[in-house]
Amino acid sequence: MTNLPTDANQPLSLIYLDANATTQVLPQAAAAALSTMETLFGNPSSSHVTGLQAKQIMDKTRQQAKQIVGADSGKIIFTSGATEGIQTAILSALINAKKNLNNTISNGKDYCLLYGATEHKAVPESLKHWNEILEINAEVKEIPVDELGQLDMDFIAKEVPNALMICTMAVNNETGVYQNINLLDKTIRANNPNTAWMVDCVQALGKTSLNLNQTSIDYAPFSGHKLYAPKGIGFMYVKENAPFTAFIAGGGQESGLRSGTENLPGLAALSVIFSMLLGESESSFAPVETLELFRQQIVSALTKAFPEIVFNNSFEHSVATTINFAIPGFSSKEIMDLFDAANIRVSSGSACSSKVTRSFVLDAMGLPAWQSESAIRMSFGPAMTQTQIDIACNRIASAAQALLQSCLTLDLNSTDTMDSHNINDKAELDGLVQFKVGGSCSWLYVDKKSNSAVFIDPLPEVSNRLQTLLTCRGLKLVAVIDSHGHADHESCRTSIAKEFLAQQQADTLGWPDNTPTINIHGNQYQYISLGKKWLIKVPTPGHTDDSISLILCEPVQASTDNLVVHYAFCGDLILMDSLGRTNFSTSSAPDMYTSLQLLKSLIGNDSLICPSHDYNNEFTTSISAEMSRNSLLTQVIENSINSKEFSIQKYIMDKRIIDESGSEIMCGALIGDCDKKPVREYDSASLAEAMKHSNTIKLIDIREPHEYVLQHDESFAENVPLTRLVQFVQEHQQDKQTQFVLVCRSGSRSHLAAQALSRLGFDQVGHLKGGYALHQY
């Protein structure tokens, strides 16, 4: 192996739809920057000819910037980017405010600093930082927005009289929503003519017209890399006579307003972009009317591909280049992974946040939590072309079609394929599938031969997905069962049973009535058949009085036989690195003691346990794996502690549980800090070298089937989706010395999975650091 594949046939061309995060540098701008570095490299502050030539570039770029933002008067100061501009504006305004406060007799006012609730985090964090550093101690207040993302003018009118500064933005980076600058101007100045006003104009450049001279805006930061210039160059507008304090002092460059040797290559690139905006050179930029048609085409493709899509921004109040949406039943990470496999780059909101999480912007707009958690942002710039839009729309259709690989959708509106890439038949499903929502787990077991399935601990968030999967594959649902009455979520068992098991009579947990019984080691247990396997119900109270464990095993031949166990679904009896809590009103520590010993006697030490919670992404465990780190469990299994002593220690353990308001209820106290075992990390060179010297290395692609089918090479790696990892562990119990190397999109999932396998005794497991993202052709 010399290279990692990007596609079964050929690499897909990149469709970049994350321009609000950053943009590629246009060839013309890159050429200007390179030429400047090679031939016009002088220091603009030098008085010799080379320096004067460099200064000419800087002067030209400054003049162009004034034209573009409508700043005949006022100053244009070049910076490293928007964050520096924001710091400079806030520091300047607050130093001036403090000076005025020191010179003014206290009039009993409670001063505040105002910012829009949907503002980029650089603004409120900077306000809080400098407010504290300068010891002004004004109250930092959020200006609410409505469901369209528009600022509350009544709130501004009420609060701005006491505001030392107000910060708003022209265009929001997540939703593209633009504010009515003229209305803001009138509202602010009617109530406070003197407060400092900063407007973040980063996303407005090149997308809306600006005429800053016609406003009372004091400061406006801009960034070059959002509009095809290199990173590290930006500028800010400062109104004539607005308070100003240099943020960077030193050699006195920029007339003493911003010291430091000027970024001449960046300025040369920025000048090229400005020439395009001003029509001074051949432009690569589409007019606003064309950009609106592009948005309309993408929206149409998205709606056709995902009929239930919900758009989070009003197009009437947003710039044409930003589309924010959510797809019911899919997390933002799932859609990002899907599009990434199709070589479409999108964002889950602001790319300035490294974690995929809820959007504070959509939360501020009052949108439902699921929309905030599932938000996807598509954004493009004015250099987007019709050809790229056409490819993007075809790629969106194919990405949606690929979801059939996992039976995650039923509604296909198009059979078009992308770039000669065929979507194959649905991926085979036979065995165990894990669904995770936060720290909670649901388990689906499918027996392919009998075309039957059982669903255990059903989570409401995956109800629609399960029903789609059952319908897509034509599966017969035998039972849907809860392991106990859950305190941390409401089971959706009843609704699923109503849809697929309307005629079945069952108890409160979903166990079917009138099932046969079997004698095992002197005790009677009920069971149901699932193909040629049995699912045995074992009462295991303790966490709650109704708790049961479900053991999937081979049929029992004699009452004295040991069970041949495939999986034990034990609810919250045994958790990874913990035992279920026993401080609910229906809990009993003595009962848990008995249940632990009973479960061990039935499944042994090494059978795989599938609990209803997995707080540390460990997927599955076994009694022996837990005994290696859970001394209390070890004492129970080895009978070195009695029920009373167990209850005392369990009480102490449960006191460590902290249920945070608004978050899921913890169903067990984690014992340690869950240190992950180190696993071998490969890069493409070391992996190629290892495979050259060994033909026993097995590469496992752990992406989901819909990702795998869009971007894979079957000769390179076998597909074992992360949702099927527990099945993989069960099937490879005898292969723990095999060299497995796991691969995913970015290396994150493969790292987690490799750590889980390592903990379960797979001693030779490794993963590809950086995944396909860092190791493509």
From TrEMBL:
EC number in record: 2.8.1.7
Pfam families linked: Aminotran_5, Rhodanese
Keyword tags: Hydrolase, Iron, Iron-sulfur, Metal-binding, Pyridoxal phosphate, Transferase
Catalytic reactions on record: (sulfur carrier)-H + L-cysteine = (sulfur carrier)-SH + L-alanine
Cofactor(s), names only, from the UniProt record: pyridoxal 5'-phosphate
InterPro entries for the chain: Aminotrans_V_dom, Aminotrans_V_PyrdxlP_BS, Metallo-B-lactamas, PyrdxlP-dep_Trfase, PyrdxlP-dep_Trfase_major, PyrdxlP-dep_Trfase_small, Rhodanese-like_dom, Rhodanese-like_dom_sf
CDD domains documented for this protein: RHOD (cd00158)
GO molecular function (one): cysteine desulfurase activity
Enzyme class of the recorded protein, top EC level: transferase
Residue ranges occupied by any Rhodanese domain in the UniProt entry: 693-777
Keyword Hydrolase found: yes
Family stated for the protein in its record: Belongs to the class-V pyridoxal-phosphate-dependent aminotransferase family. NifS/IscS subfamily.
Identification of the protein by name: cysteine desulfurase
Annotated source species: Colwellia psychrerythraea
Lineage: Bacteria, Pseudomonadati, Pseudomonadota, Gammaproteobacteria, Alteromonadales
